Amino acid sequence: MLSKKESRLETLEEYIIQNQNRFPGATGELSQLLRDIGLAAKIISREVNKAGITNILGFDGSTNIHGEAVKKLDLFADQQLISALDRSLITCMVISEENDGIVRMSSKNGKYIVYLDPLDGSSNIDVNVSIGSIFSVYMREPRYDSALRESDALQPGVRQVAAGYVLYGSSTILAYTTGLGVSLFTLDPSIGEFILSDRMIKMPDYGNIYSINEGSYNSWDLGLKQYIKYCQEEDQESGRPYSARYIGSMVADIHRTLIKGGIFIYPHSNRYPNGKLRLMYECNPLSFIIEQAGGMATDGEKRIMELEPTKIHQQTPIYIGSKKNVEDVMKFLKEYKSVP
Ligand code: P6P
């Protein structure tokens, strides 16, 4: 939390402008894009927080490209974020979990490409568990023609120029990074502003929480089974047994990991041979945030942000969190890799 002397209210807009001045030659367009996302987040937060009393809960009858029933709030969030980004004409295309292909924006010449998971964890909407929005921003590659192609969007996570999430929980929190550290903002609904609550946050190097859906235990690699067994053993010096925490909403699980340390794992399994979580609009942006806060994110072998994407909706296993915890699980995966 901010010290007393820093308690002067600093809004997201003020902070973005100040941050922009740290980029020589900044045009202010990325700042505008981040403000657009902040505006959409306020509108989504209002709907999420009153969803129980309007008829926006439940399903709208359609399914997304993954065959998942789309909830009304998913659609609302998708529409709010896309229209907010479209208005400032600096984004040329959006890729969203809720849309099959690329969404072409009004301006074909916008310099940014934005990936969105408009409302991640939507299976939790109807049971009032925290959900989140995730965004990831790339520069459009200068090319010989102005035609927009899906391939323009297939860039590794290390090329992100900004990324972040909004967590709609007991309060609404926005976290973002442009590569100069991670800052957190808490929405004050009484004034409709995101207020700076943590500047340049650093996560614990080591934590005693592990987060994984143990329902898929039987299809885990032996190394992962051995690591979880290690987490559950008594060892006071290392703070084991760890606590198990799993919300089933990635933004909420990652936010807890950012604040308290530990590790979040979504491995490959029989049901999800390539992992369930999406590389481009879940794993890359959240890995950017965690790395900027001093943590680590891999697919069990390689750094998430160095994976070369081949499809905009591709999935990947992910091991993400405090550096020491991720290093520990990778040791187990490597040690037991050749064991049948
Ligand atoms: P499971 C939510 O549907 C989500 O995409 C992530 O937010 C979350 O981490 C994961 O899936 C939960 O998946 O298989 O544990 O229900």
From TrEMBL:
Reactions listed under catalytic activity: beta-D-fructose 1,6-bisphosphate + H2O = beta-D-fructose 6-phosphate + phosphate
Note on cofactor: Binds 2 magnesium ions per subunit.
Chief place of localization: cytoplasm
Domain Fructose-1-6-bisphosphatase class 1 C-terminal stretches: 203-333
Binding-site residues, Mg(2+) 2: 117, 120, 282
UniProt cofactor(s): Mg(2+)
EC number: 3.1.3.11
Chain ranges of the Fructose-1-6-bisphosphatase class I N-terminal domain: 11-198
Pathway linked to the protein: Carbohydrate biosynthesis
Binding site for Mg(2+) 1: 97, 117, 119
Transmembrane parts of this sequence: none
Keyword check for Magnesium: yes
Annotated substrate binding sites: 120-123, 213, 246, 276
Alphabetical keyword list: Carbohydrate metabolism, Cytoplasm, Hydrolase, Magnesium, Metal-binding
GO MF annotation terms: fructose 1,6-bisphosphate 1-phosphatase activity
Localisation per UniProt entry: Cytoplasm
Subunit comment: Homotetramer.
Family that this chain belongs to: Belongs to the FBPase class 1 family.
Protein name (Swiss-Prot/TrEMBL): Fructose-1,6-bisphosphatase class 1
Taxonomic lineage: Bacteria, Pseudomonadati, Balneolota, Balneolia, Balneolales
